[in-house]
C-alpha cells in the first residue's frame, strides 16, 4: 500500500470504528447516567460529525477543478480542521455548562445522585480506550509515513491522530470518575467534575490544533532550514544569477515562494525569461512548495517592491539628493508612479 492508500484506509477505519464506539457509549450512558460518560459520548458524536467535515475537506482538496481554483484547493483541509476545532469547542462548552449546573444543583439541594450499570458500563469504556490507543498509534504511523514521503497534505490524518489520542484520555478520565462515583457515593461530585475536566481538555487540544492551521492559512513563515535550501537552489541555478530577496511562507499545508533574483542588465529578455522559468519549475519541484514566483531584476533594491506606496517617495528623495537628474532606478520609479 502507498502512503495515500494508508491515509484513506486510516480515515475509513476511523469512521466505522467511531460509529461502533458511539453505540457502545450510548449503552454505557443509558445504564449508568454518568455525566463523565455523557462527556465521552458527546465527544464521540462530535467525532463522527468532524470526520464528515474532514472527508468533505479532503474531497474538495483532491477533486476541485484548477479552472475554479487556479492556485489549488489544498487549503480546504486546514479549513476543515478549523471548522472541526470550532465544533468540538462549542460542544465541550455546552457540556461544561450542563455539568456545572448539575454540580451546583446537587450541592445546594443536598441530593446524592445514584449511578447504575455496574461493571458493564465502565468495562465498555475500557475497551474503547484500548481501541482508541491502537487507532491513534496507527494514525501516528501513517502521519510519519506521509511526512517522510513529503506527501501533499497531512492535516486531515494529523487531526484524526489528535482526535483518537484525545478520546483515549477522555475515556480514561470518564472511567476513573465513573468507578469512584459508583463505589463511593460520597464522591458523587467526581462524576460532573470529570465531565468538566474532559471537556476542558478537548477544548484546549483542539484550540492548539485549530490555531496551528489558522497560522498556515494566514501565511506563517517557513523554518530557516527550508528557506536556506530554497535560497541555495536559487543561487546555484545559473552562474549569472544571484538571489536578492526570498520569501517563503505557508500557503495552506504547503508553501508559497516569492523569489527576486538579479541578472545582468544587458542580458536578452529571451534568456532572462528562460532562466526565470526553469528556476520556477525547480522551486515547484521541492516537495514542500506548492507555488513559486520568480521576479527578475537587473539590480538590487533598497526597498520592498510590495509596499511601494510607503517607500517610493522616501527613496526618490534620497536619490534626488545625490543626482538632480536621477539614475535609471529613479526614472523607472517615476514611470511606475
TrEMBL record:
<feature type="region of interest" description="Disordered">
    <location>
        <begin position="317"/>
        <end position="337"/>
    </location>
</feature>
<feature type="transmembrane region" description="Helical">
    <location>
        <begin position="9"/>
        <end position="31"/>
    </location>
</feature>
<dbReference type="InterPro" id="IPR002524">
    <property type="entry name" value="Cation_efflux"/>
</dbReference>
<keyword id="KW-0813">Transport</keyword>
<dbReference type="InterPro" id="IPR058533">
    <property type="entry name" value="Cation_efflux_TM"/>
</dbReference>
<dbReference type="Pfam" id="PF01545">
    <property type="entry name" value="Cation_efflux"/>
</dbReference>
<protein>
    <recommendedName>
        <fullName>Cation efflux protein transmembrane domain-containing protein</fullName>
    </recommendedName>
</protein>
<dbReference type="InterPro" id="IPR050291">
    <property type="entry name" value="CDF_Transporter"/>
</dbReference>
<dbReference type="GO" id="GO:0016020">
    <property type="term" value="C:membrane"/>
</dbReference>
<feature type="domain" description="Cation efflux protein transmembrane">
    <location>
        <begin position="13"/>
        <end position="214"/>
    </location>
</feature>
<dbReference type="GO" id="GO:0008324">
    <property type="term" value="F:monoatomic cation transmembrane transporter activity"/>
</dbReference>
<keyword id="KW-1133">Transmembrane helix</keyword>
<keyword id="KW-0812">Transmembrane</keyword>
<dbReference type="InterPro" id="IPR027469">
    <property type="entry name" value="Cation_efflux_TMD_sf"/>
</dbReference>
<keyword id="KW-0472">Membrane</keyword>
<dbReference type="InterPro" id="IPR036837">
    <property type="entry name" value="Cation_efflux_CTD_sf"/>
</dbReference>
